[in-house]
């Protein structure tokens, strides 16, 4: 098989994979699968929320699935959950911690040093700045909290489909912008979002994270 045939077959296989994928809103009965997939996609080293423990992650996903301020999209292939996107209509850390305070407190009792983790402190302090808070409220900015794809099926367009569905749902909910924070080392996810029209916001970035923004009142770029 020559290189051209191989590339054509690769595209054909990816297109066939996408045909079998369904994206829907998550329900409470999806919680166990959502949390299990989260642990496949992320590690405690890279994800500060996981340091509060699994009970906290279960409570957090329950909030993302059931709160009117949030929504969670899932990608399924048959009965298997292979991707997810969790989104809040506003900065999600404070309301998530309020909703899951019992689980967060239990996590802190087991690991009290979490409260002084520089990434957590930085995120909470940023919300105290009046200018930032007014910007978020005034512009109705949605925040993508967690987005992941099963490592075994990456590269066939599932991430792209989830990003597209997330954008469409945010428009339907009347949001004007979307912000997402992605680890700088995750070049694939950054590229997927940039192809969807997201652009970097340098003033929000950190050493570990790049923040991207999409203005929903602009036409999306052609893929």
What would you note in describing this structure?
- The protein is built from 9 helices and 7 strands; from the N terminus they run αβααββααααβαβαββ.
- The protein has a 7-stranded mixed beta sheet, sandwiched between helices.
- Helices cover 45% and strands 21% of the residues.
Defining key terms:
223 residues, alpha+beta, Aminopeptidase, 7-stranded mixed sheet, 9 helices, 7 strands, disordered N terminus
Indicate the structural class: alpha+beta
Radius of gyration: 18 Å
Relevant CATH superfamily:
Gcn5-related N-acetyltransferase (GNAT)
The coarse silhouette is: globular
User: Major sheet: order of its strands?
Assistant: 1-2-3-4-5-7-6
Instruction: Write down the secondary-structure element order.
Output: HEHHEEHHHHEHEHEE
Topology overview:
Blueprint: H1 3-19, E1 21-25, H2 31-41, H3 54-66, E2 70-77, E3 80-88, H4 93-99, H5 101-110, H6 118-126, H7 130-139, E4 141-149, H8 158-172, E5 177-183, H9 187-195, E6 199-200, E7 209-215
Parallel strand pairs: 4-5
Antiparallel strand pairs: 1-2, 2-3, 3-4, 5-7, 6-7
Helix pairs in contact: 2-3
């Amino acid at each position: 098989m020559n290189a051209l045939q191989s590339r054509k077959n690769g595209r054909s296989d990816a297109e066939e994979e996408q045909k079998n994928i369904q994206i829907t809103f998550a329900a409470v009965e999806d919680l166990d699968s959502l949390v299990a997939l989260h642990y496949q996609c992320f590690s405690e080293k890279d994800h500060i929320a996981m340091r509060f423990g699994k009970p906290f992650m279960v409570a957090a996903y329950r909030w993302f699935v059931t709160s009117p301020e949030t929504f969670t999209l899932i990608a399924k292939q048959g009965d298997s959950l292979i991707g997810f996107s969790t989104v809040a209509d506003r900065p999600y850390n404070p309301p998530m911690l309020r909703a899951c305070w019992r689980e967060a407190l239990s996590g802190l009792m087991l690991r009290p040093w979490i409260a002084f983790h520089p990434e957590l402190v930085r995120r909470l302090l940023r919300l105290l700045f009046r200018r930032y808070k007014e910007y978020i409220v005034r512009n109705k900015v949605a925040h993508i909290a967690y987005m992941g794809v099963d490592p075994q099926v990456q590269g066939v367009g599932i991430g792209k489909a989830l990003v597209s569905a997330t954008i469409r749902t945010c428009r339907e909910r009347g949001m004007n912008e979307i912000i997402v924070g992605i680890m700088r080392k995750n070049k694939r996810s950054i590229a997927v979002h940039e192809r969807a029209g997201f652009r970097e916001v340098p003033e929000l970035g950190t050493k570990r994270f790049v923040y991207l923004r999409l203005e929903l009142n602009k036409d999306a770029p052609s893929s």
